[in-house]
Amino acid sequence: MTVVEEIPVGPDARVYAEGWQSWSPTTWSAAGDAAHRPEHAWQHLMRFRPGVDVAADAVQGEGLLVVDPGDGRPVRTLGALDATTTVPTLRATWRDGHVVVTRHRTDAGGGTDADGTVTTWTDPTPGAALAAFGDRLGAAAGARRSDAAPRVWCTWYRYFEDVTAADVLENLRALDAQDLPVDVVQVDDGWSLGTGEWTRPRPGFGSLPDVVAAIRDTGRRAGIWLAPFVVGVGSDVARTHPDWLVGPAGHNWGQDLAGLDLTHPGVRGYLTDVLAGLRGLGIDYAKLDFLYAGAVPGRRHDDVTPVAAYRSGLALVREVLGEDAYLLGCGAPILPSVGLVDAMRVSPDTFHEGGEDGSQGLRGRMSLTARAWQHGRLWTTDPDCLVARPSFALRREWAEVVLAAPGLRSFSDRVAELDDWGRACVRRLLTEVVS
After folding, report:
1. I need a labelling partner for 39 at 20 to 30 A (CA). Which of 2, 165, 212, 415 fits?
2. What's the CA gap between 314 and 329, in Å, rounded?
3. Cα(383)–Cα(369) distance, integer angstroms
4. What does the alpha-carbon distance between residue 14 and residue 68 come to, in Å, rounded to a whole number?
5. Helix, strand or coil, per DSSP, at residue 259
6. Can you say how many angstroms the Cα of residue 6 is from the centroid of all Cα atoms in its chain?
7. Are 25 and 115 in contact (CB under 8 A)?
């Protein structure tokens, strides 16, 4: 632990702490607020930073803390403007009228210089501080910015892993019949056998090439969901190539997960073949999910940091899919992804399977609101899909959040199940621009 600064503050002081990845809690906190911590080991792996302890008595940020003294004094920013090899872990603790910021070692396996570099400066307001950090990091990392956010129809929140080619084709026809201005039709999880089996489409889905061709025939972009940096430990890839695995990456799809070694020649060849095959079908929009797995701690073929390994893998995806491909990161390390993806999910999923009625609440609202400053500076933000069908009890509350958020305009309903309110809400989402 190294003390970075001791900042005088008033009783109304707040600290902004950037989470490690898309699904990590990110918000402003005041003295006495409960720290966001994982309840289970798998949550640490999948929602926080693997290999780094989560503080119980401090506000913890991965690469960025902003301290607002709350009494009119300048706002202090402490952040990493180079996240290509390391990202420092920063903690803020209230102590005797000060916020004490410390830097903690984050050597989670591989490489050197694990502490990273922290740059500090002041701005007049919290909004100006976050904007300045975004502008500076975006410029340094070559952020990919776009004037127009894609308008997307996604299969996930209606069909989940049971989606079929017929479902996609039905909704493709309905989009035209309803004259809904959608640019991208994205087939989410469920088209393949599962993580680690990307070369083997799920038999119950149908023909992916036919679906892609049909989407492109309407003049829209064909999108696909992938989790390219993670495999299930029971998958053919994991069993056949145990030397490709780095370390634990959580649990999903009914099995434990492991991160792939993105520096291993075999892994890079495997990813190249899979991605080139998808691009060959005409897919040029990819939602890249569970990307945090590429930066889990562990030994790798090359002696590089987990962050450097992650970026090498993401750069490979960009190279194979092409500069003109649109890449959306999800479950992705935030700062290390800048310059390599076009858009970034800035919150956890709205709900999981079983929460279609709204019983799981609005899980993403806190972080997507806090991260609005990233839009247009680091990438196009993705607030997640609007769900507007009558069976989603929180649809009006969620619509208020999504409609007000900048970034991607996406929805995930069976078009035929929308009522008048739902159709009007979707049309508003697709036609209004939020900056």
Report:
1. 2
2. 10
3. 9
4. 5
5. strand
6. 32
7. no
For residue 115, the model assigns a pLDDT of 63
How many CB atoms lie under 10 A from the CB of residue 82? Answer: 15
CA distance 146 to 158: 28
Output the pLDDT for position 286: 98
Q: Which two tokens stand for residue 7?
A: 């900042």
Nearest 5°: phi and psi at 14?
Answer: -135, 155
Q: State how far the Cα of 274 lies from the Cα of 339, in Å rounded to an integer.
A: 23
Whether 169 and 217 have beta carbons less than 8 Å apart is answered as: no
What Rg, from alpha-carbon coordinates, does the chain have? 21
* Residue bearing tokens 């050197």: 112
Is position 349 annotated as part of the catalytic site? Answer: yes
Strands (E), 183-338: 184-187, 221-226, 230-232, 245-252, 255-260, 283-288, 326-329
Q: Alpha-carbon distance 332 to 340, whole Å?
A: 11
- Catalytic one of 123, 261, 289, 413: 289
Q: What CA–CA distance (Å, rounded) separates 115 from 89?
A: 8
| Rounded Cα–Cα distance for residues 382 and 384 (Å) | 5
Catalytic one among 68, 123, 189, 349?
349
| CA separation for the pair 368, 405 (Å, rounded) | 8
* Beta-carbon-side half-sphere exposure of residue 60 (alpha carbons within 13 Å): 23
Sorted by sequence, the CB contacts under 8 Å of residue 139 that are 6+ apart come out as none
* Domains by residue range for the chain, with CATH: 2-141 (no CATH), 151-431 (3.20.20.70)
Tell me the two tokens of residue 386. 């609007």
Rounded distance between C-alpha atoms, residue 200 and residue 191, angstroms: 9
Q: What confidence tens digit (pLDDT) does each residue in 132-179 have?
A: 999 999 999 999 998 889 999 999 999 999 999 999 999 999 999 999
**C-alpha span between 225 and 208 (Å, rounded):** 12
Buried b (16+ CB within 10 A) or exposed e, 354-385: ebbebeeebbbbbbbbbbbbbbbbbbbbbbbb
Which ranges of 282-342 does DSSP label H, i.e. alpha helix? 306-321, 334-337
Three-class SS state of 373: helix
pLDDT at 111: 41
Adjacent-strand bridge partners of 59 = 92
Q: What's the confidence (pLDDT) of residue 113?
A: 41
261 assigned to active site: no
* Weakly modelled stretches of the chain, pLDDT under 70: 106-115
Residue 111 has a CB neighbour count (10 Å cut-off) of 18
Verdict on whether the full-model pTM lies above 0.90: yes
